[in-house]
Amino acid sequence: MADRFFPNDLPPFVAETPSHTPTPHTLTSLLSLPYQSLASKLQAAALHLKQSVVSETWGSGGNCVKDYTLYTGVLGTAYLVFKAYQVTKNLDDLNLCLKIVEACDSASENSSRVTFICGRAGVCALGAVIAKHAGDERLLDYYLRQFKKIELPRDLPYEVLYGRAGYLWACSFLNKHIDKDTIQTTHMRPIVEEVITAGRQLAPKGRCPLMYEWHGKKYWGAAHGLAGIMNVLMDMELKPDEVEDVKGTLRYMIKNRFLSGNYPSSDGNESDRLVHWCHGAPGVTLTLVKAAEVFGDKEFSQAAEEAGEVVWKSGLLRRVGICHGVSGNTYVFLSLYRLTGNKEYLYKAKGFSCFLLDRAQKLITEGKMHGGDRPYSLFEGLGGMAYTFLDMIDPQVARFPGYEL
Ligand SMILES: [Zn+2]
C-alpha cells in the first residue's frame, strides 16, 4: 500500500442508458444504469451491509456498550439504522435505533465528552430526533432535558471532534430537526463568543483573522481545525465583524493552499499528502460549499469546485470510511451537485460509490484497501459506506454525517 490512493481511471463520463438485456456486472455497466436502477442496487447493498453492521456492533443487544460514539461506536450504528428507516420506513429499524440510543445514553451518562461526533451531545440530540419520529413526546422531552444538562469543561478545545464547535453543531442539529428555537441563541451565543475570542487571540496578525490549536498544532481540516470551526460558525448568529473574520479566514486558506489545489493539514505544513474529510481538500470543500450557500459569494463556490477537482484526481483512497476514505470523499461531489446542480458532480459521486459497490469488499479482502481500525463503524468502516449508498438514493437530501446540516 505504497500509495495513499488508487489512480482514478474512471471514465470522464458514462451516459445512462435504458438497458433491456442483463449486462455483466462491471463498474462501467453500473455507471450506465438508469439512476433509479443504480439507486435500487445501492439500497440493496446498503441494507445488506446494515445487517452486518448491526450484528457486528450491537449483536443481540445484551452486551454492554464499550464505545458509545458516533465516530467509531454504536451511536454510529444507530445513525445508519435511522437513515435506513428514513429510506424504507421499516418500523423495526426505528425501534432498533431507540434501543441502541438508550444503551448509549446509559453508557455516556458520566462522560466528559460533549460533542456530536465523539460525545454525549450526539447521543442526546440523536435520541431526541428519533423520539420525535417515533411520536414519543415523553422520550423527546427526556433527551432534550439530558442535552440541556451537558456542561462544557472550561479547558474544552474549539474543534469539531472534541471541542466547542462539535457541541454547537449538535445544537444546530436539534434546531434543524426539532424546532428552530429548541436550543436558543442565548444559550449558544456565549460559546460562539468564546470561539471567536480565542480565534482572534491566536490569529497571526495581519494574515488571518482566526486561528486555533489542538494538541499543539494549528490544524486547518474539518475534524480538528479551521474548516470545521468555520463550518459551524456559519450556522450561528454572528455580528458583522465576526462574519468578516469567518470570510477572511476562508480567504486566507484559499490563498495559501498548495499549488496542487489541496489544503495543508495544519498551518505552515508543507506536506501535500492527505485528501481526507478530516485533513485536506474534501472537508474544506464541504465548508466552502457551505460558505457559498450562506454568503452567496462566487469566490467560495469557485474555490469549492477547484477543491473538488483535487478530490476527483487523488481522492480514491485506499480506505473505505467517511473520515478518511472513499465514502467520505463521495460527499464532496454530492455537496457540489447540491450547490451547482451540475450533473457532472452527480456522475462523479456515482463514480466513487460504484467503485465502492463494485470493488471495496474484494479490495479489503485482498489487503489492497484498509477496512478501518473499527471495520464496521460509521466514520472508519463499512457503516460509512452503507450510509453513503443510502444517501446516493436521493442526492438532494444527502448530508455528510455530523458535518452537513
Ligand atoms: Zn480521518
What are the SSEs and their pairings?
Layout: H1 27-31, H2 35-57, H3 74-88, H4 91-108, H5 120-133, H6 137-149, H7 164-177, H8 185-202, H9 226-233, H10 240-255, H11 281-295, H12 298-314, H13 326-340, H14 343-365, H15 382-393
Helix pairs in contact: 2-3, 2-15, 3-4, 3-15, 4-5, 5-6, 5-7, 7-8, 7-9, 9-11, 11-12, 11-13, 12-13, 13-14, 13-15, 14-15
This protein binds zinc ion.
Protein name: LanC-like protein GCR2
Pfam families: LANC_like (PF05147)
Organism: Vicia faba
Notes on the structure:
The chain has 405 residues and is an all-alpha fold. Helix content is 56%, strand content 0%. It is built from 15 helices and no strands. It has helices at residues 27-31, 35-57, 74-88, 91-108, 120-133, 137-149, 164-177, 185-202, 226-233, 240-255, 281-295, 298-314, 326-340, 343-365, 382-393. α3 (74-88) runs parallel beside α15, α7 packs antiparallel against α8 (185-202) and α7 (164-177) packs parallel to α9. The protein starts with 26 loop residues before the first helix and ends in a 12-residue tail after the last helix. 53% of the residues are buried. Bound molecules: zinc ion.
